[in-house]
Amino acid sequence: MDALRVPQALFTGYDWGGRAADVAAALWPERCTGLVSVNGYLIQNLALAQEPLTPATELGYWYFFYFATERGRKGLQRNREDLARVVWRRNSPEWRFIEAEFAQAAELWANPDYVDVVIHSYRHRLAVAAGDPRCSGPERKLLGQPRITAPAVTLDGQADGVIPPTDGSSYAPHFSGPWAHHVVPDAGHNLPQEQPRAFADAVVEVDAMT
């Protein structure tokens, strides 16, 4: 934002992008005019990283545990596209993506940093790998699970194969400003791409809250 000389913006995202949007909204509230976040409050609680979740949620996290092993690293290195296809289909079982969409994403998996970044991210999330020491300051702040004060709309996909849809009540306390939650029909984990109209409607909704 600084490089683009954008003083404030409405933040949106899902999965890794949703976590980045949540973190930015929490740490730099003066820059955030509103937030749309798929799957709610996504700031990692590393203090609870070794605590089990519900079995249904743990099942959706199968590849987290796979990537925590050396076998998983080798599997990602050797089978990037095949593994991604399995994840896409399981995470978004009702999404009928076309091969051109998959091929476009696959171009990114050839990045030489791809495997290292993915493996470290999931291992850090499970607290089996240390974070980057250059980020220790923000990470300490995030350990406190800071509230998001900007107006927010959170979304769950009704057919999400990773995180089962909820009514949002479990993370509602993390939002101290105006907040609304919706479950989106016929949407899996990749909600913005599967149901772009619903995602755009959420942006309009949160913008009207300001």
Automatic annotation (TrEMBL):
<keyword id="KW-0378">Hydrolase</keyword>
<dbReference type="GO" id="GO:0016787">
    <property type="term" value="F:hydrolase activity"/>
</dbReference>
<dbReference type="InterPro" id="IPR029058">
    <property type="entry name" value="AB_hydrolase_fold"/>
</dbReference>
<protein>
    <submittedName>
        <fullName>Epoxide hydrolase</fullName>
    </submittedName>
</protein>
